[in-house]
Amino acid sequence: MNGAVIKGLARRAIRSALQYDVVWEYLPTRARTEFVQVQRRAALESSFHAKCGLTFGKYEVSGGPFAGMKYPEAIAVGSALYPKLIGSYESELHEPMEILLTATYPLIIDIGFAEGYYLIGIGRRLTESRLIGFDINPAAHRQCQKLARVNGINPKRLDLRSCCPSDELLTMLPLRSLVVCDCESCEAKLFRSELIPLWAKSDLLIECHDFLISGVTEAILASLARSHSVRIIGTQSTESKLHFLRNKQYKQFRLEEKLRLLCEGRPAPQAWIIATAKATVSKTAAGE
Fold first, then answer.
1. Three-state secondary structure call for residue 217
2. How many other CB atoms are there within 10 angstroms of residue 76's CB atom?
């Protein structure tokens, strides 16, 4: 056995031992050299991914409004995967989403659909709705098509497009619609006051990006004030979502790993606007 092989075996043995907190705690400070610290980090990273493979191997959403939705592979586009599989992703919206899903919408529009978490998730719940998504990322189109297939969405229901010009929206929005928008600050253009008549019959869920465009939430709220009943919801901390990991399947994860699993990767606190069209509410109340 040559020296390189022996060194490799020794490194693996050290890493295997260093993944355990008890070993690290009893290791004298003077022994925690830069090399040993590197091996400790590598050991913890390897252990984390191994535990994730065992825990999330089925790639199935386990909670929230889209529980049971299956992912074809461990890929999310532009956002974190594990919170979605756990069912904690944007849990601030679970209750309002359940309320929205009690309505009937001929059309679901998702602007910035990514891999299709909302578009396909809603499509599984509202099985008669037509699904239209807008996203400029080609990877989003590929992953959304895969997500649709593994969840049995009829291809005739699904229409994925790139840009979201107002003239295309004009042809769609005479229908009562549910619109989900997460388009990284483009909401400032889509929901400016002169375009609000486009959305008059639509219920809206808009993620706002004030850290990119200061004041965008207040501007959209002002624009929607006459046409919609509006509610604003703020993001919660990652720590406040630890209760999602109380099940025994997550017991093997360390606290910092649990926080990593739950982290949605937001660069700053955000807000969502839930807006219900007043015209639709009035007609429903009048029995029309």
1. helix
2. 20
Q: And the tokens for 217?
A: 């939430």
What pLDDT band is residue 107 in, cutting at 50, 70 and 90?
very high
Query: φ and ψ at 131, to 5 degrees?
Result: -120, 120
Distance CA(145)–CA(113), nearest Å, equals 11
Q: HSE, CB side, 13 Å, CA atoms: give it for residue 126.
A: 25
Q: How far apart are CA 63 and CA 244, in angstroms?
A: 9
Predicted local distance difference test score (pLDDT) of residue 14? 66
DSSP-derived secondary structure letter, 103: S
| CA atoms of 67 and 97, how far apart (whole Å) | 13
Q: What value does the mean pLDDT of the chain take?
A: 88
pLDDT at position 10 is: 59
Q: What is the pLDDT of residues 254-271, one digit of tens each?
A: 999 999 999 999 999 999
Contact 203, 259 (CB under 8 A): no
- Cα–Cα distance between 191 and 115 in angstroms, integer? 23
Q: How far is CA 78 from CA 114, 136, 184, 265, 268, in A?
A: 7, 12, 10, 10, 16
d(CA 64, CA 23): 38
Q: State the DSSP H helix or E strand holding residue 158, giving kind and residue range, or none if neither.
A: strand 158-161
For the segment 163-207, what is each residue's pLDDT rounded down to a tens digit? 877 777 777 787 789 999 998 888 998 898 888 888 888 999 999
Closest by CA position to 88, among listed 260, 244, 203, 192: 244
Whole-angstrom CA distances from 115 to 74, 152, 252 are 11, 15, 29
133 within 8 A of 153, measured Cβ to Cβ: no
Angle, alpha carbons 261-262-264 (nearest 5°)? 110
